[in-house]
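pasting for the record
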Amino acid sequence: MNLHKTYNIRTAGAANIPVLGLGTWQSTGQDCVDIVSKALQMGYEHIDTAQAYSNEKEVGKGIQQSGVNREKFFLTTKIFPDDMKFTPENLQAAAERSLENLGVDYVDLLLLHWPDERVPLAETMPALCALQKQGLTRHIGVSNFNIDYLLEAKAHADVPIVVNQVEFHPFIKQSTLQTFMNNHHILLEAYSPLARGEVFDNDIIKAIADKHNITPAQVSLAWILSDNKRIAIPKTANPEHLQGNLDAAQVRLDSDDIAQINTLASSGGRMIEHPDYTPNWDD
């Protein structure tokens, strides 16, 4: 893959993942097609979607519309537990359906979207590993897993779990999970990195933005990326915000900035409504 070194992180699983990508949650219709196409054309090298977003076909159309060669960007999708309730064959069928919807032969990263006690990891993790070995995905990972679920997933996987995609932004505590993941060579991939827009109204973040002549969004993203064990996938429907988000990968905050932002996290800082089977979080 011909990725810019500036945007790369190498994981224990030998995956070169651009550290900043385009999230597509709630992107729909032609707007989704156009934002994916524009992002790729302007230099984004990481696109994130999921079956549960109901937009894989639109993401695929955006990829085709962009004219960017498939080998030039990193593509992630996720399979929801509803597609894995019964047999590993269901997981295989779900993965093949995603590839068809996206119009690609493989994805770079395939994630289990949520843990669910009704879906045995003893079956789904070996099946997920098999998809990597078959070439349907180059790497595997999980999303919304706590430490207990990560331990169980690792126990049933014979290839590396390269990321755990979780809600992460300046207002949420994830230090316990982050430490565990660092020790096990799993990257933290941050969804909702702008805290559903809350970063725009925070006085500390606004002051740091003014200090560096950047935006609050760039402050939040730069803070996330200041730890080289993290990736951010901000979503935007506004083409004008694409470049600003991408440029955040070049922003370097100083130690005082980072210390101030670190004070913002709280145990009640989650912004996303989660399903009934959400695990008990570690912070």
